[in-house]
Amino acid sequence: MADAQKSDGMRYAPKGKALKVCGPGEFRFAAIGLDHGHIYGQCNGLLEAGAELVWVHDPDPAKVAEFCRTYPGTRIARSEVEILEDPSIHLVASAPVPCERCPLGLRVMRHGKDYFTDKPPMTTLAQLAEARAEVEATGRIYAVYYAERLHVEAAVHAGELIQKGAIGRVLQVIGLGPHRINAASRPSWFWERDRYGGILVDIGSHQIEQFLHYAGAREARVLHSKVANYQWPQHPEFEDFGDATLVADNGATQYLRVDWFTPPGLGAWGDGRTVILGTEGTIELRKYLDIARDPEGDHVYLVDARGEHHYAVHGKVGFPYFGQLILDCLHRSETAMPQKHTFLAIELALQAQAQATRIGSGPDPR
Question: Which domains does the chain have, with CATH numbers?
Answer without folding.
Answer: 3-146+323-333 (3.40.50.720), 149-319+350-359 (3.30.360.10)
